[in-house]
Amino acid sequence: MPDYQLNHAVTDLEGNQLLAAGTRLSGPVMETLTCSQPTAVATRRLLDYRQVRPDLLGFFAAAPYDVIFHDPARQRALLAIAGDVVMPEAVLESLYYFRRVDFYTYRHTLLVFALSILIARELINDADALMQEIIAGPTHDIGKLCVPLEILTKVSPLTETEFDHLRHHVLAGYVLLSYYFRDSTILAARVARDHHERRDGSGYPLGRPIDHLMTDIIMVSDVYDALISPRPYRPVSYDNRSALEEITRQAGAGIISETVARVLVALNRRSRPHYSRCVLSTERRGTPPENNGYGVIEK
Ligand SMILES: [Fe+2]
Ligand SMILES: [Fe+2]
């Protein structure tokens, strides 16, 4: 395994430290961590957990997501797949914690999950394989549990030190999910670790080009939702056209997957073309918000 090292401690929802800052995530360290959980882990369905289902339906109805999710047949298929996702209760509690303290992150994790299912079902034909892959969606940002709330909800651009702490969420997520699922090799843990890597090696934590379909799908869903949603530090979000143009630009530059970007663009067309026939235009007609803060951090 490449050399991952924690810049900050990883703690669970109750504040118990799982690993200290400076820990190298070696095989033996991860082995000890995953064996430290009790053997019986209680699991529940994500959509049946407290207000998750009604919340998700409310998010679907709000523009610009209504374009993607308004189709009843598409929504039924999506909910049937999402309805089968079960998770350890501690993971559900951790996700639900954000509903109270950082609603943006809560909404974001559910919408990335839903969007990643719609994209994945276009690209993965086998139903069992699809179920195994899509579980990685809702938990990709669970490591934000280990980022101070004042950083997550800061209304001005982050400093370099704060950004370093924010970047911690990828390895924190990997550790937390390895711990809760008692397995450091599960997809959800790897996607949490890798979803900010980029195909051209410009991402983090290692700057390593990732070539894995579900990671690509979460990556594109994650960037798209970040563009079109208000963020604490950027109250004006991208309009849908500008967001899709930015996604197309990043795909053209080899930063994110072009196939996944094409599926996302197809999902946004009301005529519902098959993604393979969807042309990615490089023409820029949208108007991105001025002084947009997406990915731009004040040094
Ligand atoms: Fe993230
Ligand atoms: Fe995210």
Plain-language structure description:
The protein is mainly α and 299 residues long. It contains 13 helices and 4 strands. The strands form 2 sheets. The chain has a two-stranded antiparallel ribbon. Strand 1 and strand 2 form a beta hairpin. The longest helix has 22 residues, at 160-181. The relative contact order is 0.12. The site of one fe (ii) ion (FE2) has 5 residues, from helix 6.
Summarize the entry for a quick read.
The protein has 299 residues and is mainly alpha-helical.
How would the blueprint of this fold be written?
Layout: E1 10-11, E2 17-19, H1 27-35, E3 43-45, H2 52-61, H3 65-69, H4 72-82, E4 86-88, H5 89-101, H6 103-123, H7 127-134, H8 149-152, H9 160-181, H10 187-194, H11 213-228, H12 240-252, H13 258-267
Antiparallel strand pairs: 1-2, 3-4
Bound molecules: fe (ii) ion (2 copies).
One fe (ii) ion (FE2) binds near residues 112 and 222.
